[in-house]
Sequence to fold (730 residues):
Amino acid sequence: MKTICFITIAFMLLGPALSWAEYDYIDISNPFLRKIPVAVPFFKTAIINDAETQISSKAADLLSKTFEFTGYFKTIDRNAYLLAPNNSDIDSPNFRNWRSIGAELLITGGLSVKNNTMEMELRLFDTFKEQLLIGKIYKGKINDQRKIIHRFCSEVIYLFSGNWGYFNSKIAFVSTGSGNKEIYICEFDGYNPKQITHDSSITLSPAWSLNAKWIAYTSYARGKPDLYIRHLTEKRGAVVARKGINSTPAWVPGKFSLAATLSFSGDQEIYLLTGTGKIIKRLTHKRGIDTSPTWSPEGKKIAFVSKRSGTPQIYIKNLDSGRIKRLTFEGRYNTQPSWSPKGDKIAYSAMENNESNIRVINVDGSNLVQLTNNAGENESPSWAPDGSLIAFSSTREGPSRIYIMTAYGTDQRRLLTLSGEQTNPDWSPRVINK
Amino acid sequence: MKKSIYARAYLLQEGGNDSNSLILTFTVSLICHIIFFAALVLIPGFTQHKKFFPSVVNVSLVTLPPQRQIPGPGKQIEIKSDKQVTKRKKTVSKKSVKVDQKPPKAVSVTPKEKKVKISLKKKTFDSSKVIKSAIKQIEKKVEKTRREQLAETLERIKEKVEKTEAIERLKKKTEKDVTRQASRIPSEVGDAGADRQIWDITQIYKLEIAYQIQKNWAFSEQLAGMRNDLKALLVFKVMPDGEIRDVFFTDRSGNRYLDESAYKAIIKSNPVLPHPKGVIRPYVTVGIRFTPEGVK
Fold:
């Protein structure tokens, strides 16, 4: 009896293993294409007229560009389509046609415009499973086209990766376009840059609050580096103008307070401040410069730059235990740390052999990777809210510009071109529009 | 009633009819289980799920107030505004002061012509020398980088070519051997030597199929979170004309995106090369293990 039981259990446990063992497997570990091929034909319009056709083709182009921007997708050239790009079926496309040109995904769209109101229908298909993955109808003003496209892209990214991406985020940066160092903001893809400070002096280190409604920065508007905390749409704000330096703000995740470097005590130390500029407590207590704080996503640790060991290096402080550990040992000049939104990595700027480059290191000090190489001075890394991209400034083309790359250093490209030089990018959290 | 409870309680130790009925029940149950598990193990074929078309969802966007835009280079913009910050000094600490906004100003984003200042240094130092040394340095740097990159690329290409040539050589040799053996001693085709050759041809054929599938594998490791611990195992049959049939997973990775990309790579490769000479099976079974290794 016991034997029967034993054999049964053994059979149950070993059955699947035995079935796998009967095949010889060949390993494939190197995908030929590292992006998903996707086809985006022009959207169909309800009425065929010039205005709607133009909006349709613009919308389809924007969708293609936004997909390419992610670094995950490769849009297929419309010249390769078997059908005319403006003649695809929205509801039930001929999947075989799309498969034969290598498209794994297909996005079809329809558009109708009435009295400045637009209705856009977007569908994402899996051409191999011949299955509709996402289908949405959006209604809005014609000006909302970008917003509609970005919202659809968010849905697609969420389907594949489980996070909503960065399509509702913005990037703040410093630009000398007006003749002075002023703070500008633009959308995540560099669209619509706007100047937000007009101090006619030196403005530095912009930092977004968690809801992206507040921005903190350092300005020399009063002749010395003071810390400005400012609401972007309402007329509210505060200035921290203590003696000495007031700089490098970093908002605490989930709270209306921030860490910043103040030197009124004679030594540059990091303090925790309220959103109105009052000091809550001092976070660092070591002689020597402590500056550039960045928070871990849960707000329990800060990484900062300190010269306590003789050269500027990055340290991590656990605010609960008060324990401090040195993170960087490679190189003699490591600054501008930026903690990844996932919490596992820190990007920073490392100067070695008279060249600044962006490096990424695990918070336990392992897996140090240099992401830029032989491409001018690369500084001020800042993570996208989903941790998939990094914005940074680089002088690879002469004047300093804002660039972005994937978190692994691939797909490095310029974000925008403006007059003057652009530095100090700071990527905002994802703005949730309800 | 009491007796039956007693009887059930000591079933395993009692002989006679009760024991027989237990064994019968157990045997029937065992057979059912075996059939069930055998069916699970032996027929795990890839069943196409019923197509599910989610209904289209209506989403209405709320329009936000229009934003001011900066026109492209070459245009002047006027930035209105603005006392951006009110006099809420009461809420700020003693040392905090309100933000003073300066009156609006027209700002241009067009490139400004910069005044060229001639420094004293320029008058005194030899610019040609500086330029020469800078060029020299850049040349040295470019040369070094290029050499390294070139060497790496050449090495990679060399490896690839060697691999392909080795497969080709082996394939030709095995095909020749099989043909020779078959023509010399037809009666002995089924002997150990010939079997070995056929086995070799089949293995090479499988490698070729795997290579073809790899060329059709599109997978973004970053989209899968750069996990290099994932693996998807698929098995399929290749008919004599190269048609791929009965694709099924023997082990899924747990990452839907990797599983789907692996499946698509196989379907995209259909049909593969027909069976080579010497393979006389009704079909060849191929197993592929997809394991992304991360961005290099």
In short: Chain B touches chain A through 95 residues (CB under 8 Å). Residues 127-184 of chain B form the longest helix (58 residues).
